[in-house]
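Render Olfactory receptor 1A1-like in 3D.
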Amino acid sequence: MREENQSYILDFILLGITGQQQQEDVFFILFLFVYPITLIGNLLIILAIRFDVHLHNPMYFFLANLSFVDILFSSVTIPKMLTNHLLSSKVISFGGCITQMYFMIALGNTDSYILAVMAYDRAVAISRPLHYTTIMSPKSCILLIVGSWVIGNTNALPHALFTARLSFCGNQEVANFYCDITPLLKLSCSDIHFNVKMMYLGVTVFSVPLVCIVISYVRVFATVLRVPSTKGVLKAFSTCGSHLTVVSLYYGTVMGMYFRPLTSYSLKDAVITVMYIAVTPMLNPFIYSLRNRDMKAALGKLVSKRIPS
Ligand SMILES: *[C@@H]1O[C@H](CO)[C@@H](O)[C@H](O)[C@H]1NC(C)=O
């Protein structure tokens, strides 16, 4: 019976961000700018770090890894949205839909864990400077990054598998511009209780790094405040403040999106997903490097090397 129902479903229809043609056009233009900025911004970070030996340390390796994940993350959804809009098509295949969902969750979680690794790295550097090189040895850096990837993919696999097994009974209209887990679950005519429980478990796994980030920044502040230097305190607050802004935007929107009853979802929530799908991957390279003199110097060198004046 289940297989029979499923065989009807070949494609899904992506309803878009608001479903209104004019607003979709606006978002199309917005994404047309946001996506290249995300790619170029993150790529420049990776190249600047690769080619500047001054930046060959854990903090920048983690930043390069974050940029790499952000490039992949935004490439899972935005190019499909752009090409569909250009072709005036709303179609995504069943396989494409499940694949998109898998990589969304996997890369979103990897991103979340790398953000925590970066905060932990700063906390160790500032509160235990003498032990920094032993704690952040090359081996533990690789372990932290591999760990982030493993957790991300492990968290995504059950959702993709259990969603792929659902029946859809001819309901094909996904209320978002990409295949997100909640609109897909709402479409299904199977019993989704288990899937919803898995989703809450998944968001919990996603949110664990937020606790590490908060603890790390509390440790940073505590250390900085112990050494009274107005300049140091201001610098720490402005740097950590901008990090905390993107971090809270990211976790706040994701948690607000998935930690709630499935019945409360509608197409208007798609606008909220734009925040973590498009905005945070674009902001990350700027937030983590603009206030940073070494990073700016490396970027300057990179650009002047390529474009001889
Ligand atoms: C990611 O981090 C690892 C370990 O610190 C490092 O060896 C690797 O070069 C980084 N990846 C990128 C894309 O910079």
